[in-house]
Design goal:
- The complex is a heterodimer of chains A (163) and B (171).
- Chain A is an alpha+beta fold and 163 residues long.
- Helix content of chain A is 15%, strand content 50%.
- Chain A has helices spanning 8-28, 56-59, and strands at residues 41-54, 67-70, 75-94, 99-121, 126-128, 132-133, 139-144, 147-156.
- In chain A, strands 1-4-3-2-7-8 form a six-stranded antiparallel barrel.
- Chain B has 171 residues and is α+β, with helices and mostly antiparallel strands.
- The radius of gyration of chain B is 29 Å and the shape is rod-shaped.
- Classes of the chains: A alpha+beta (163), B alpha+beta (171).
Chain lengths: 163, 171
């Protein structure tokens, strides 16, 4: 039986096929780049929460220095660093003057808290304790020592961890 | 003078023309396969990605009846999201008092609502126009007049209504 020997052409064909298989294997097993959202930073941020329709007795429960938690998951959301109050107001229609006016609600106040906390910052979000989304326009249910309120998250001060 | 192709069909007496032809054919098949593979991978990387031409677009949105702190939370250059999709960059912000239709006591009139604002945002993005549908950033269907849901930036969330599309290039 005639012994088969590889000539240059055979080697070239095998080489090209092996090269193609290698390229195919490389393309099929590439690791996709991580999504941009995965890029994040850690830092501290200050944000503002407004709680409407409170009585003076309710407002007196809250003190500067209180540690707050998000009420449903008991997740730390920071420490109260300032408290401001102002009379609560409601819009009423003045049909005679054809105007919409703000009128104070007697005995009711709006409490505005500034809260400082550790945050995780992504392209899209700022998260307290890596879990609670801090974004203006969202409602937030929170607890402190002996109290629980629901309020509106007004906004986060820019120039903190996200910059 | 030495011939380029000898009587046995070899170039320079070493390489057969047929051999080179077969090698070239195999290379073309492999390159074609790789090109097809890469193109199909690009098209399926986002299952909703259409194959239409992506062109620059600006669109105007209105946020009605928001309070001053929402206005303060919106800044030029902020990236806008709808759900998980990035739908553009804010390049213009205009604010005016919010007016509300009031009926009653035998009269109908527009009243300016204290501490409520109408915010008009100009957004820069890209759009794909396919059979009359506009897909922003190749992903999010949008049309004038629809209120598609809760938009958000890193700092604030709001509901908005698209009022106008401005294409920088004829589609």
């Amino acid at each position: 039986m005639k012994k088969k020997r590889l000539n240059g052409f055979d080697i070239a064909v095998i080489g090209v096929i092996l090269l193609g298989a290698g390229v195919w294997f490389f393309l099929a097993n590439r690791t996709p780049p991580p999504p941009e959202e995965a890029i994040f930073a850690e830092g501290r941020a200050t944000y503002t929460v407004e709680v409407p329709h409170l009585t003076p007795l309710q407002i007196a429960q809250v003190q500067v220095g209180d540690q707050l938690q998000e009420a449903t998951g008991l997740i730390p959301i920071g420490q109260v660093i300032s408290i401001e109050t102002r009379p609560d107001e409601i819009t009423v229609n003045d049909y005679e003057a054809q105007e919409i006016r703000l009128m104070p609600i007697e005995g009711r106040y709006v409490m505005t808290l500034m809260i400082e906390t550790d945050v995780t910052v992504t392209d899209e979000a700022i998260l307290a304790d890596g879990r609670v989304l801090l974004r203006g326009g969202r409602g937030i249910l929170f607890t402190g020592p002996g109290y629980a309120f629901s309020g509106n998250l007004l906004g986060i001060e820019r120039g903190g961890a996200e910059e | 003078m030495r011939k380029l192709i000898d009587e046995k069909g070899r170039i320079g007496g070493k390489f057969s023309v047929i051999d080179l032809g077969v090698l070239a054919l195999i290379l073309v098949i492999l390159l074609g396969g790789a090109f097809t593979f890469l193109r199909s991978e690009q098209e399926t990387s986002g299952s909703e990605t259409p194959t239409g031409r992506n062109i620059p677009v600006r669109y105007m949105m209105e946020i009605a009846g928001v309070r001053d702190w929402t206005v303060r939370n919106i800044e030029l250059g902020d990236t806008l999201f709808l759900g998980e999709f990035e739908v553009g960059t804010i390049i213009g912000v205009e604010t005016e008092p919010h007016r509300q239709l009031v009926t009653g006591d035998g009269a109908v009139w527009w009243g300016e609502v204290p501490n409520r604002y109408l915010v008009t945002l100009e957004i820069e993005s890209t759009a794909t126009v396919l059979e009359g549908r506009i897909l922003i950033a190749r992903s999010v269907p949008m049309s004038v007049g629809n209120s598609t849901g809760a938009f958000h930036t890193r700092y604030t969330a709001f509901h908005a209504t698209v009022r106008e599309f401005i294409f920088d290039e004829e589609s």
